[in-house]
Write a structure and sequence with these properties.
Layout (H helix, E strand, L loop, with lengths): L1 H6 L1 H25 L4 H19 L1 H4 L8 H4 L4 H12 L7 H32 L4 H15 L10 H25 L2 H13 L13 H23 L6
């Protein structure tokens, strides 16, 4: 299995993503059948599958220490800061304690599940297949963003899906660049968790943006994408 992933990383990723979502979907169905809320059931299933993937691929995921190259992570923390600013400046109301507990689980699901699949396993296999850092970054980021296009199946409007795909592309670029630089999957899981958690804290999350908010968000995405490309192409060694 490991050698196949290193020889044919893109095909292996397709298969792994399909199987991971399938298994998570089965477990989510069981959770819903026993009375769990659908979103909570799906989240718990993905956390479980993510942990199983970490155990299966622990050999290739244990590359960098949780504290290596922490400075590279700093720009990624602007994503959760943006979420706080956007929602609070739009008048969103924070939920209660029980709401936060559910938000913790819902945010942990993509943080573990997606980082293992799209950064840890995929980028490691692309590098093992002799792809350059830039090639590995672009392939994994595009793959990650296109996966979010499947949100159209959940009756999302096309404009919202297009925004999600673009946002996922930038997230993939930044997180992928950091992983290539310091090899720490733990840092990415934490950053991804904070990004999603700060977007699930509100009873009435913001759904529309002002012209000023759109301008700030656009500048943020462009700056983050530029940072990712700079970090990937820079000659600095892993910290």
């Amino acid at each position: 299995m490991f050698s196949f992933g290193e020889k044919r990383p893109i095909l292996f990723e397709f298969i792994l993503v399909f199987l991971s979502f399938l298994v998570a979907g089965i477990f989510a169905g069981v959770g819903s059948a026993i009375g769990l809320h659908p979103s909570l059931s799906i989240s718990l299933a993905r956390v479980f599958v993510g942990i199983v993937l970490i155990l299966i691929f622990r050999r290739i995921l244990a590359q960098g220490s949780p504290t290596s190259g922490l400075t590279y992570l700093a720009p990624a923390l602007l994503f959760p800061i943006w979420n706080l600013f956007y929602n609070l400046s739009s008048g969103a109301q924070l939920g209660g304690t029980s709401y936060y507990l559910e938000a913790l689980i819902v945010a942990a699901a993509p943080a573990i599940f997606e980082e293992v699949l799209f950064r840890g396993v995929f980028i490691s296999n692309l590098k093992a297949a002799q792809h350059s850092n830039l090639s590995s970054l672009l392939i994994s980021s595009v793959f990650f963003s296109l996966i979010h296009a499947t949100n159209v199946l959940e009756a999302e409007d096309l404009a919202t899906v297009a925004l999600q795909v673009g946002y996922a592309l930038v997230i993939g670029l930044v997180f992928g660049a950091i992983y290539l630089k310091n090899g720490s999957l733990t840092q990415l899981i934490v950053a991804h968790f904070l990004t999603d958690f700060t977007n699930h804290l509100y009873l009435n999350p913001a759904t529309t943006a002002s012209t000023t908010q759109i301008a700030i968000f656009t500048v943020l995405l462009v700056a983050e994408a530029a940072y990712a490309l700079w970090l990937t192409c820079s000659k600095t060694e892993r910290a």
